[in-house]
Structures are given as structure tokens and as C-alpha cells.
Amino acid sequence: MLDVGSFQHEHKRKQKVCRMHWLEYITRFIRRQSQSWLIVQALLLLTLIGLVDYSTGYEVPVYPFYAVPILLIVWCCEMRYASVGIALLSGVVWWWADVATGHPYPSQWLQIWDFLSRLIFFFLVMFAGSAVKKQRDAIRARVDLLEHSQQLEHEIVAVSERERQSIGRDLHDGVCQYLAAIGFTADLLRQDLARQGNAKVATAGEIARLLQDAVERVREVARGLSPVDRDEGGLELALDELALNTSQLTGKNCIFLCHEPVEISDNILAVHLFRIAQEAISNATRHGQARNIIIALESGDGEISLRVSDDGIGFNPNQGRRDAGMGLNIMRYRARVIGASLEIYPHAPTGSVVACTIHQRTGGKPLPAAHQPTATSAATLL
């Protein structure tokens, strides 16, 4: 059923954003003009307001409109004393219109007080506008600094991931091959010693075995540094291998579901999604006491969704253990870096679900829709 309140709230929010965009557009348009031309425009506007004040007579108070040219100069003009001059001129123009319309005063002191009160009002408008402008400039500076920091953070993370992948490829293509060649040579040495009946055959065989074990360990390190290949389907293969390794190493039942290929052109994005799944599985096995884990990768409607669900005891993201909380912070950090949303919620009847969703478009077109596994089928598998 449609939530009318939510719809109205979203509609009002969009209208507010639209008004803010128009205000920003008008402000930028005015700021692009020269300072002298802005002062001329403010003077013309002040003259127009004074003529309107004169034509309406002293019975109709028009003095609040004198704030418009004052705020125009305060908001858009960078000249130091221009706003002070416009405020003084506004007081003079108002006094001229008041006198020209023949405003009767019981005494001259009352006329002077009326003029001073209007002048104080104009200066208060100037000071208030200056304060708002300073606050807005400070907020804009903080936002720009935050955006720059986030961009720098993204670049640092991207460089770090590229360096990790480069080290992983160098280990796999360089060190592994070198150790494999040494192991092959050690095995040939073992065969030669065996033919000669040398007592060192067992030692040579042990060296060959240790070298083979070293090759496997270096390959595991290289795979950990560069878990996702750049080839098409690299993330799917990496998640499938992650599920297989989890089942073998922990004894848990971990499976990977992906009904249709998910196209991800950005390897850094794929690596972050893999790390999120890796951390979610670690939390499920270490803290959630899960026996069954499902990794589901889906795409549809221009979105890529990664879900890790388990049948463990579940946990509260806000009241977890310190090391578990660190893992959650890492997942949230990675999701924020790639512009994704991360949700953690209970899984019926037991356990929890970690869902990471990111809007992804390739070549300006939405990704092809996939047959998504339903919550019912996932619950059945668990």
C-alpha cells in the first residue's frame, strides 16, 4: 500500500532542493557580474524603492524593502565599505521620501528619532546579512574541504588497492615461478641421488616438498592481495572460491549464488565488494556462530546487490563486541568509499543479513536484470 505521508515528504524535499538550486543559480549569476555594475544595480534599485515610497505617501510603510539593495551588496559585493554606503544612502533616501511626502511630526526630535530608528534598522539588516554570509561561506568551505578529503581518501584507497594487486601479481608471476623452478631442480636432484644410491635422497626430497609448500603459501598470499581477477566474471569466481575455502577451512556450509553474470567494469569496486563479503563471513563464523552461510550476488534495475546471510545467533550492530564492531566499521567504510549503501538486519528465523547495494551503470545503460534469489529460497537453503 502506498504511504501517502512518505510520498508527500519526498515531494516537499524535492521542491526544497529545486528551490535551493534556483537560489544558487541566481546567486552565481549575480556574482559573475562586475563589482561596479553590482553597485550601479543596487543604486538603481534603491532609487526605484525611494520613488515608490514617495508615490505611496508616508501612510504606507515601505522601509522594509530598502533591505533588498542592502542585502544585494552584502551578499554579492566584495568591496569592503560598499554595504555601509548603501545602508547610509537607504537612510537618506527614506528621509527624503518621508520629508517630500509631508509627513507631519509633533516635534523635530520625533522626526530625528524616526530617522535614526530607520537607519538603525538598515544597519541591523547589513550586520545580519554579513553574519549569514560569513556562516554560509564557512559552511561552504567545510563542505569543500570534506569533499576534497573524501576525493583524496578515495584516491589513496584506489592506489593502495592497485599496489596490493600489483604486489600479488608479482608474487604469483615472479616469486611463485622462481620457487617452482627451484623445486623442480630439487626434485631432479633427488632423482639423481636416488639413482646413485646416495644417503641424501631423503634430504633432497624434503627440500623439494618444502619448496612446493612454499609455492602454495606464496600463492595464497598473492591471492589474498589480489583476490579478484580483472577478467570478466572475476568477482563471481572470487566469491565462489571464497565460499569453497570457507567451507573447507571452517567446516561451515557456505555456498555462493549468482543466477546470471554480473558485469562490473571497475576492478576496485569488485575488490571492495569482495572484502565486504569476506568480512561479513568472518563475523558470521567468529561471532555469529553460523552453520550455514549464503553469498548472493545479483544485478537488476541499474543496481548491484551483494548479500551475505547466515543462520547464526545474530547480533546488534550497535551493541557488538569490539573486534566485531571494528569489522562492521571496515565494511561501512568500504561501502562509503564506493558510494554504496550497507544494511545489517535480522534474518528470519535466526541469524543476520549483510546487504550492500550500489547503483551501477555501464556505458550509460542500466545493467541487465537478473533473476534474483528470493528471501524464501534463501531461508529454505538456510
Structure description:
The chain is of the alpha+beta class. The chain folds into three domains: 4-153, no CATH class; 154-224; 231-381, 2-Layer Sandwich (Heat Shock Protein 90), CATH 3.30.565. It contains ten helices and seven strands. The chain has helices at residues 4-31, 35-56, 67-76, 82-100, 108-196, 201-225, 234-250, 267-286, 322-337, 375-381, and strands at 253-257, 292-300, 303-310, 341-346, 352-359, 361-362, 365-366. Strands 1-2-3-5-4 form a five-stranded mixed sheet. Helix 3 packs antiparallel against helix 4 and helix 4 (82-100) runs antiparallel to helix 5 (108-196). It is elongated. The two termini are 30 Å apart. The relative contact order is 0.06.
What would a concise description of this structure say?
With 382 residues, the chain is of the alpha+beta class.
Detail the topology: elements first, then pairings.
Elements: H1 4-31, H2 35-56, H3 67-76, H4 82-100, H5 108-196, H6 201-225, H7 234-250, E1 253-257, H8 267-286, E2 292-300, E3 303-310, H9 322-337, E4 341-346, E5 352-359, E6 361-362, E7 365-366, H10 375-381
Parallel strand pairs: 1-2
Antiparallel strand pairs: 2-3, 3-5, 4-5, 6-7
Helix pairs in contact: 2-3, 2-4, 3-4, 3-5, 4-5, 5-6, 7-8, 8-9
The third-level CATH topology of the largest domain is Heat Shock Protein 90
Across the major sheet, the strand order is 1-2-3-5-4
Beta strand % = 5-15%
CATH class of the largest domain: Alpha Beta
Secondary-structure element pattern, one letter each: HHHHHHHEHEEHEEEEH
Number of domains: 3
Instruction: Report, as a whole number of angstroms, the end-to-end distance.
Output: 30 Å
Structural class: alpha+beta
